[in-house]
Amino acid sequence: MSDVLKPAELSKINYKPPRKEWMKTPVNFKHGMYIYPAKAKNLKYLDMPNPREWSPTDKDWKLPENWKEIVLEGMRERLGKYRSFKIFMDICVRCGACADKCHFFIGGGDPKNMPVLRAELLRSIYRGHFTKSGKIFGSLNGARELTVDVLKEWFYYFYQCTECRRCSVFCPYGIDTAEITMMGRELLNLLGCNVNWVIEPVANCYRTGNHLGIQPHALMDMFEMMLDDIYDRTGIRVKPSFNRKGAEILFVTPSADYFAEPGIYTCMGYLVLFHELGLDYTWSTYASEGGNFGLFTSHEMIKRLNAKIYAEAKRLGVKWILGGECGHMWRVMHQYMDTMNGPADFLEEPVSPVTGTKFENAKSTKMVHITEFTADLIRNNKLKLDPSRNDSLRVTFHDSCNPARAMGILEEPRYIIKNVCNNFYEMPENTIREQTFCCAGGAGLGTDEMMETRMRGGLPRANAVRHVHEKYGVNRLACICAIDRATLTTLMEYWVPEVKVTGVHEMVGNALVMEGEKERTLTLRGDPLKETEGEVNV
Amino acid sequence: MKLLFSFITVLLLVIIAYAGIRYASLYYVFGVIIPYAAVGIFITGFVYRVLKWAGSPVPFRIPTTCGQEKSLPWIKQNKLDNPSSTLGVIGRMSLEILFFRSLLRNTKTELREGPSLAYGSDKWLWLAGLAFHWSFLIILIRHLRLFTEPVPYLITLLNNLDAFLQIGVPPLYITDVVLLASVSYLFIRRVLIPQFRYISLISDYFPLFLILGIGISGILMRYFFRVNLISVKELVMGLVSFNPQVSADIGSIFYIHIMLIATLFAYFPFSKLMHMGGVFLSPTRNLANNNRMIRHINPWNYPVKVHTYEEYEDEFRDKMKAVDIPVEKE
Amino acid sequence: MYDTGKIIAGLVIFAGLVTLPFWYNSGKAAAKPEPSLDTPVIQQMKDKHCIESKQYMIDNHMQMLNEWRNEFVRGDMTMYINSKGQYYTMSLEDTCLHCHSNEKQFCDKCHTYVDIKPYCWDCHVKPKEEVASGQR
Fold this sequence. Notes:
Chain B is mainly α. Helix content of chain B is about 60%, strand content about 5%. In chain B, helix 1 crosses helix 11 and helix 2 packs parallel to helix 11 (about 250-265). Chain C is mainly α. Chain C is built from 6 helices and 2 strands.
């Protein structure tokens, strides 16, 4: 992060577009705002096209000879397969309502980060090659020829979009830039123009079951460490099972949850909760990833990676699936999994074994979100909670993009938070719920190479956090997304260093009064439970 | 440049119509052939475009949810912004189409010192958009008085309501004023705000000029260069009864008005104006968020290459056994 | 998912609405309105003329009546001098309706045809029909 500008300098943003027309302004790859390309070995492992050594700053991108044909044919195919794509190419009126809704535009001021212009990057080619008016009027009507420069522009800007869908909330026609970006990235992938931060996790996930490439024995090590920590904090030895046939529930969560801080504390939260409930559930090393970076690659790749979830549920003979806190994972589970890899007729309609509640809203997909599950437990008084254990925390909640705008999970996490801690404060209303701001590291951008883009794009979120920090002394930012837990941590260090990031179930784990526990003095994080004097307003 | 091009095109249309009537007396061309052709192109073009959209399936159910989902019975669902049933979708779509629900959310982001970001409510675009579309619709409907005989009561009522201020003779229509004001606002906004000028194309300016031209020519015709309304209705009734009769009794301003409208109709299916049809088909709005309740079918769902559990176990069997993870094959 | 049925239904409704005028009139050319000049006073006139030329009256009667009203009620003129220099009282009831006493067969003919509802009768008393009108 050393080479990123200081916050004071970064926040001098010029929103004025250049005088020169955007079509005549070629892309300029700026350090800190693009990601290194996918390594050849990863592409080869996935049988993806055009594996090679190259860099976006190279003049020659080593494209296949017939690259133009490939892209145009790819567009034609997708226009025929996705009504969304076709409609979104046709009906934008450029009213500009989306322009200042994108966190990357707000934090950077680059006009090509206005959702409307991001889409025009693709639309201009659509007009130039697929419509008569575009062919006749050319650039006057926003049409242009497909050139290598256009490809470079696509690469730069489609990997400066986190597919967060905030713009689509404000669009009078519901035009969803996530769809546009997904199509743009699919087309780039046809030429092997992709980023390693996405493709390596995809390759890892394909092989080892999880993005981080954690092999079964290493995974067990990580769990051992967490279980030791849990024993240390609670005096209870939790014993989860792995790949166990006949369990009632398969639990799936992103691998980031058991890989690094602060995700592991959330994972410890799940572990103590399930232990306390005596839940008949199993983890899986094969389906050891809930997340799906296929979503940031192509629809085909979503399906290739997602297939293992139902396959493993079937192999283990579980009744239903429970999913952990994750954003894009839930976009896939909620909006794609059943369609792509269903029907899940070998599973049963989910019923909470603790409360008997039927999860009617998951009766086809047979997968329940952990906050739905836990909210139901709390509502039915099945948990003994001591919210005062979280008294050192002054909490605000960041709605993660996908649970908010692709599902509508808004109240469940809030209900849980209000029951496990005493100090909860909302951020301003234009920055939460369906209008929530992205962490700016989603959709495969959460890498250090992208630091400037991330810190800029994260400004709106960070600014809202700063607001509640200054107003209420908020020191903890809760979320239900693994990418958030990683990227918001960096973002907070940069913009609001006083605030740390937590998963909701970490706080559940802290507040949960367990049977046979020792007197708790430490949080799952290992911090002292009771704040010491003078620590309140740090 | 784009602005000028659009303006000159509309001006040319006006000149063509004026010259055609004034100097060449092409009444039949401007009064019959062009209107028929325009309506023909409009309907077939519109249907063609929608059918082309319909030809592509909606492979995934991807609504943008803007409120609380339906989950546990004690959590209040936001049925309009996050519908889970057809009825809810109809409600959501109605709000969207009739009242521009999404645009109503519009905010204006402001960066202040600090840095501190503020999001002010910004309803002008919504208001102007709504005012423009509704007044256009009302104007269109009240024109039906020239297309029907006898004139249905509802149209008479609409006419009277629109003119109820009784200012001047003939009485001023409120919608005439609203239309011109809102279109002017939309135009000025596009020209003055640098970001919007940056993204604007001919296809943004041209319809604005066209509609301004239609509005202005209509107002001139009604209040200034008045034409014989009886002859106008005769001409129109001749057209709609497929018995066209031209009359030299109508001023050229009428033919300018008709020319611009015909252009708008004919241009419609090839332009962004198709958002009128498209908004109904937008998959982020017209689908219920019942993804986990009812399986959505993708007609082109095809098998993909996956990494099976067997392949996985084959690679990691020893490591799994070493840490007591159960395996299929010993 | 194509939803073809719904889309086709939508298109049929759309086409139906757009072509509504064609259906509504179902091919009948509506008759051109012929205002009647058949009133006792006009019958008795030797030289049948209005206060201005016929074409002028067709084009401008509304403005004229509006001016008359304003002048008579708010201004100080009560007489109208026409293009031939003749004087007429500015009065709807005493001047216009004196000859055109058949409102339904005269005024309403065109007004109804193009759906105009002048608000003359908000204040003025409608004249009694002197010719048995066949209604519309």
